[in-house]
Design a protein that fits this description.
homodimer, 331 residues, alpha/beta, 7-stranded mixed sheet, 5-stranded mixed sheet, 11 helices, 12 strands
Chain lengths: 331, 331
């Protein structure tokens, strides 16, 4: 049975949502949960007669990396939940790691301890975003590497392709390079060189612009971590702004209020579609192990979906596929 | 009376929306319009008894820079509408220029012929975006300079501050540097150095992230042209995706359809708020003259508002204020 190490400490809201999400996942999927955190706290969150108790293992620890600490601290904090969790994956005592804690710490520890796949110089965070056709796209890097070379961007394309092909089960994923025009000559210095490299990949379809990002024809979006993070947060900001404006306008008239009431179901569907929790976490690609980085604010549903993603990564051997892709060298 | 040179040729839909917008502007504002384009075509669009005919001058030409041409062509095409229009500003025969044509061509010609303000090495395009408080923010650069140095970003901050203070009439505009975290240490190499430079400007309030971009506390957002353009287009893409999803959900149920009908007014307001045409065009800052770059797809309303912006730039002497700011050197 697949074993998932779950950091029960680092999230913004403590152990509660993480345990709750884990219990839900245990009800729906077949895996062994290794919870790392304060034993008493974890125990208090598990109902006495929880059906799948035998599939829970708890490893006690007290320490965790706080959100305002620097990632550099992590390597010295051997008693922290994330340190112990990465050790489990390193020593093959767990098949995957899920953490909603300090993402920088998770990334450094995973890279240093579990190690990089041969040929990968920079592991990348893949963000899963909704498309208008109801499917998802993978954007990477979402913030792990702020300054990238063309070679890094090329490697992101290779990793994203393997992830989408194996986890999303798409036959021939399309890779787009995020840029400011569709033509090859459009972009900045790094993106233009990356374009030339990516042309060697059979999944590459050229530059993609932000206004076509979500229309359904791109499976993998490649960009540096600065741009990727800005895109993610701006998307969030725009969606929030639209909701806020609409709420203001609705409040201005009784007719609109009634209309909004009748539209409740549609709004709910929209909310669900835009809800990050539906997509779980972000896979850390390029590591010799399966690591899913959750949002610090993860609710139980997000944790449940992150665990689902981790299981899926294990089952489909994403890392092995990525390693094979780099070994072959030709795409 | 302020004289505005209007490129009647370069837009995606030909002269029609441009003339229509100009006529509307003439009805509401006091200025002299110099239309550059095919005389016969322009004449055919002006109603015989148009009240403000005496405030229209037409300069005939046949040629214009097509959207798929390179900007480099522009400098040799002396008979093109945009070449003639920039000449008018250069020779002080017009106070400002409005063009919805090839933006690269407009930029190069404006820079080469009208010239840069002392101290500005890179003119920047300022995009005007809606905030949730009903006011606007200025984001620059929106795509003129894809690779920027920290000094360029600093200069964008200075120019944006003067524009917002003088045209939007805000007493002490706040400048935010677009980044991936609020802390000074967050960002890429260029943005971190730009942070240090921008600290010398009294309007600088630190890094701003995409999710807080529209919440109303930032007046000027500074970023390089690659990031700026990606942000603009992604914002467009997200807004479109949300509308598309909502339409799909509404179509699925009669109740929702009725609700949407009742909410029509609210949706209309939202549409108006998100409509680029409401904001006119984008000022090209750092030039020794007033240049407004319109969207290629500008409709009459967008042209009307772009002309309004051009008049406002003239009236408030934005260029002189920018030149003074650079001359003083201290902010």
């Amino acid at each position: 049975m697949i074993k998932i190490a779950i950091d029960a400490m680092g999230g913004d809201f403590g152990a509660k949502p993480i345990i709750e999400g884990t219990l839900k996942a245990l009800e729906h999927q077949s895996f062994q949960a290794i919870l790392i955190g304060d034993k008493a706290q974890i125990h208090s969150q598990i109902p006495l007669h929880f059906k799948h108790r035998e599939r829970i293992e708890i490893i006690h620890c007290n320490d965790f990396i706080k959100m305002d600490e620097t990632a550099a601290n992590a390597i010295r904090r051997k008693e922290s939940s994330i340190f112990i969790a990465t050790d489990l994956v390193k020593e093959n005592r767990a098949d995957a790691l899920v953490s909603a804690g300090h993402s920088g710490a998770t990334m450094s520890l995973a890279t240093l301890k579990i190690g990089r796949i041969d040929g990968v110089s920079r592991p990348a965070i893949g963000a899963i975003l909704p498309r208008t056709d109801g499917k998802e796209l993978l954007l990477l890097d979402a913030g792990a590497n702020v300054d990238c070379s063309p070679e890094h961007l090329y490697a992101f394309g290779v990793m994203g392709y393997e992830y989408v092909q194996n986890v999303f089960r798409r036959k021939k994923p399309s890779i787009g390079l995020l840029s400011i025009g569709e033509e090859e000559c459009k972009g900045n210095e790094v993106s233009k060189e990356a374009y030339a490299l990516l042309q060697n990949h059979h999944g590459f379809v050229g530059n993609i612009e932000g206004d076509n990002l979500f229309d359904g024809h791109i499976d993998v979006v490649v960009c540096d971590g600065f741009v990727g993070n800005v895109v993610l947060k701006t998307s969030e900001g725009i969606a929030e702004a639209i909701v806020k404006l609409l709420k203001t306008y609705i409040a201005e008239s009784v007719t609109s209020k009634m209309g909004a009431l009748l539209m409740r179901k549609s709004f709910k569907k929209l909310k669900k579609n835009l809800d990050y929790a539906e997509y779980g976490g972000a896979p850390l690609l390029g590591i010799n192990g399966n690591v899913i980085i959750g949002h610090g604010k993860s609710n139980p549903k997000a944790i449940q979906n992150a665990i689902k993603q981790a299981i899926s990564s294990c089952e489909h051997h994403v890392n092995i596929k990525i390693a094979e892709a780099f070994k072959k060298g030709v795409h």
